[in-house]
Write a structure and sequence with these properties.
Number of domains: 2
Number of helices: 11
Shape: globular
CATH class of the largest domain: Alpha Beta
Structural class: alpha/beta
Radius of gyration: 21 Å
CATH architecture of the largest domain: 3-Layer(aba) Sandwich
Strand content: 5-15%
Distance between the termini: 57 Å
Number of strands: 9
C-alpha cells in the first residue's frame, strides 16, 4: 500500500495537548482550513470551549479528556475518532510538560511523571495511530513534537531534554520500521526552538523562582504552520527556527566549547525574578486556553529556514541556484588561469 496525502479539508486530525500553545494554535489553523478535529488534553472545560468556538465558525471538532501518560486513555482518543468520524488521517503527538530543576534536585516521581507525558504519551499515541493507519489504503501521517533540546540538551531542563531526545530516537526508529514493513505511514519529527507558548507559565520549578524558555522566541503560528505542512506533504524532520538550527550546527562542530558556553549562560537566561507557581500542570490540568506566554501576544513571526525546509520546490530551487553559482565561480576561476 502507498501513503496518499490529502488536502486539509479532507482530513481528520487528532491533536494531543490541544488546550493551549502549539496544540491550540494548530487546531484553530486546521479548522480554518476545513479539517475535522479530535482534540485531547486533561482540561475538559477548556476543550469544550475550544470545540464550541470552532463549531460556531462552521468547523467540526470533538474533544476527549485524556491523560496521554495512560495508555487506555490514549486509545480512547483513537476510538472516539473512529466512532465519530470513521477514522483519522493525521495524528499529532504534541502534549508536553516541563520542570525547571537541576537533575539532583528533581524528585524521581516527578522525573517519571514528565516522561509519562512527554515520552510515553508519544509512544502510546504512535501505537494507536499505527494500529489504525496500517491497514487503511491511504495510510496516514504521525507528527511527533520533540524539541531542539533533543539535539542540544541544556541545564535546568535536563529531564525535559532527555524526554525529547527519547521522542526523536523513538520516532526515527518507528519511521524505519514502517519503511521496512512497507506500511503506508509517514513519520515526521518536529524540533521547535524557543517558542512563545505558555509552557513555562504551567511548568513546575525547583529553582526558587519561575523558569522561562531561552529567548529568542518564535511565534506559535510558525510551529502550527510547519505541523500542517507535514500533514500534507512528506517532511522527515523539521527544526523550527534559525536559532535552533544554528545551535545544532554549532554543537556538532564544537561540542566542548558549546558545553562550556551553555553551562555558564543557560542558568542565567532561563531564570526570572518571579516566585514559583502555586499550581502547575505536572500532575493535573493547568489553567489552559492560552496560545501565548503570559504577557505576550506574538513571537518572531517568520522563520525563513523553516519555510525553506517545508517547501520542497523552494528548497530545490535554492539548491540549484547555489550549485549554479558555485559552478559559474569555478568556471570563471579555471578560465582565469588560462
Amino acid at each position: 500500500m502507498k501513503h496518499r496525502y490529502k488536502p486539509l479539508k479532507d482530513q481528520v486530525i487528532v491533536i494531543t495537548g490541544a488546550s493551549s500553545g502549539i496544540g491550540l494554535a494548530t487546531a484553530r489553523r486546521a479548522a480554518k482550513r476545513g479539517a475535522r478535529l479530535v482534540l485531547a488534553s486533561r482540561n475538559d472545560a477548556v476543550l469544550k470551549e475550544i470545540c464550541e468556538d470552532i463549531r460556531a465558525q462552521g468547523g467540526e471538532a470533538i474533544h476527549v479528556v485524556a491523560d496521554v501518560g495512560v495508555k487506555e486513555q490514549v486509545q480512547a482518543i483513537a476510538d472516539a475518532a473512529v466512532r465519530h468520524f470513521g477514522g483519522f488521517d493525521t495524528w499529532v503527538n504534541n502534549a508536553g510538560v516541563v520542570v525547571f530543576s537541576h537533575l539532583d534536585d528533581l524528585p524521581i516521581e516527578e522525573h517519571k511523571r514528565l516522561f509519562d507525558t512527554n515520552y510515553w504519551g508519544v509512544v502510546y499515541g504512535s501505537e494507536a495511530a499505527v494500529a489504525h493507519m496500517r491497514n487503511r489504503p491511504e495510510g496516514g501521517t504521525i507528527i511527533n513534537v520533540a524539541s531542539i533540546n533533543a539535539e542540544m540538551p541544556v541545564p535546568i531542563l535536563g529531564a525535559y531534554s532527555a524526554s525529547k531526545a527519547a521522542v526523536k530516537a523513538y520516532s526515527e526508529v518507528l519511521r524505519m520500521e514502517m519503511i521496512h514493513e512497507n506500511a503506508p505511514i509517514k513519520v515526521t519529527v518536529l524540533k521547535p526552538s524557543g517558542i512563545a507558548t505558555p509552557i513555562s507559565d504551567h511548568g513546575r520549578s525547583h529553582m526558587g523562582h519561575r523558569g522561562k524558555v531561552m529567548p529568542p522566541l518564535y511565534d506559535v503560528e510558525v510551529v502550527a504552520s510547519a505541523i500542517l505542512t507535514a500533514a500534507q506533504r512528506p517532511v522527515r524532520n523539521i527544526t523550527v527556527g534559525e536559532t535552533g538550527r544554528l545551535s545544532e550546527i554549532g554543537w556538532a562542530m564544537a561540542p566542548s566549547l558549546f558545553d562550556r558556553i551553555i553551562a555558564w549562560a543557560l542558568p542565567r537566561v532561563q531564570s526570572t525574578d518571579q516566585p514559583p507557581l502555586e499550581r502547575d500542570n505536572l500532575f493535573q490540568a493547568g489553567d489552559d486556553g492560552q496560545v501565548y506566554l503570559e504577557g505576550r501576544r506574538s513571537g518572531i513571526p517568520v522563520s525563513p529556514y523553516t519555510q525553506l525546509r517545508v517547501n520542497r520546490k523552494l528548497e530545490a530551487g535554492l539548491g540549484l541556484a547555489v550549485a549554479t553559482t558555485i559552478g559559474v565561480l569555478l568556471a570563471q576561476r579555471m578560465l582565469g588561469r588560462r
